[in-house]
Amino acid sequence: MSKYNTFLTLFIVAVIAGIFFMGFYIKGIFTFVAHVHQNPNPNPFEMLSTIFSGPVIISLAVALLSSLASRIAGIVLVVKSKTVSDGEKAIWIIGFVLMSFITSIVFLIMAKGKKFVE
Predict the structure, then answer these.
(1) How many whole angstroms separate alpha carbon 95 and alpha carbon 106?
(2) φ and ψ of 117, to 5 deg
(3) Cα gap 93→80, rounded to integer Å
């Protein structure tokens, strides 16, 4: 698998895990609200366990790790590219560090055309 395909795979995994995280988290919030309406004096630990359930924590961990890995892969691809000038490399690195999601989308669109990847 090429470095570009690895970057693409990590980015897709991060997006899917982020979507799953948002779904599980919203479901947890609705469950929390339903429990509060049913029981006016809920157990705080039980309530926290509805919001921070296993699927929420696992999907968050997968999203964070794959997002970090795609950032690192993108930075490595840009730094090792011989066709990108030093100033442009600095801009790409700053973009990956500060705005990973947007920079990753732009990188996916421009990488093949600008010959960032072999």
Answers:
(1) 10
(2) -120, 150
(3) 12
pTM above 0.85, yes or no: no
Burial call 5-44: b when 16+ CB within 10 Å, e when fewer: eebbebbebbbebbebbeebbeebeeebeeeeeeeeeeee
| Euclidean distance between CA atoms 40 and 18, whole angstroms | 32
The answer to whether the CB of 70 falls within 8 A of the CB of 3 is no
In tens, the pLDDT along 42-98 reads: 787 878 888 888 899 999 999 999 999 999 999 998 888 888 888 988 999 999 999
Structure tokens at 58: 């696992």
CA distances from 68 to 44, 80, 113 (A): 32, 18, 25
Query: Which residues, including other chains, have CB under 8 Å from residue 28's CB and lie 6 or more apart?
Result: 50, 51, 52, 53, 56
